[in-house]
Amino acid sequence: MENIYDLVIIGGGPAGLSAGLYGARGKLKTLILEKEKNGGQIVITHQVDNYPGSLENATGPSLTARMVQQAKAFGCEIQRGEVVSFDFQSDIKTIRTKDAEYRTKSVIIASGANPRKMSCPGEDKLIGKGVSYCATCDADFFEDFEVFVIGGGDSAIEEAQYLTKFARKVTIVHRRQGFRCAPIALDKAKENPKIEFLLDTVVEEVKGDGILESIVFKNKITGEVTEYFADEEDGTFGCFVFIGYVPETEIYRGVLDCDEVGYFVAGDSTETKIPGVFVAGDCRQKPVRQVVTATSDGAVAAVMAERYIASKFD
Description:
The protein has 2 domains: 4-115 and 245-312, 3-Layer(bba) Sandwich (FAD/NAD(P)-binding domain); 124-241, FAD/NAD(P)-binding domain. It is 23% helix and 26% strand. It contains 6 helices and 17 strands.
């Protein structure tokens, strides 16, 4: 059984990297499969200051690099690969990517989530042309321009603060009066002279011929529709969307239990209804989604996988 892994982890974000560390350190033959970049959502986060023990001015990429280094130090393998099919029904599970097939005694799915879109006319054709879901990636394109931030959670408020380093003005657009972010973050935003608020408002449409040129707003209370046009000298502006995430679980739905949104349903043990299959991180139904809760999930899932293997195969 030399070609069989003890543990294959699908996803190389904080949950997957934590699981990889714990699995490999527990002497399991461990593999992480990541289809894009290691680190998941934090790799595009400009600052991570709420992770216990993180260094001052720690960034998503720097924290990811340390996690990867630590997991590899204990023998965890990390490979690129997008899962296209799987078979979890046997004791030895099979995972297939476009280029390879892997067999394993246990699986941890830590596939994460993707940014939720506004789902308004014009959005898809203007992605990367004024519409963005990543301030760290695209902020410098809007040096001295105006930008709008759509959303009212922690990500929206924190990224709005970051965007003030580049934009001359940042307007936070939120569909209600109340915010779902940490009060201290909201207080800082309100104190920032570059930040303004447009409340009880939603985006109806974004427009532009090859580049974002205008955005249509609707007030949810009055029904009034207004259109903001780019400054004539600028020719464009930025629209950064932070309205939540969609779990990356579609391929597994129908096989594993998911809620109405698509998040995996699993208890604190991270166990699913299929023995030997566990879920961890932002793809799992949970009240708080932060780096620290993702790494906790990964650790728990790896320990549970180790116990499962010991009871099933030893």
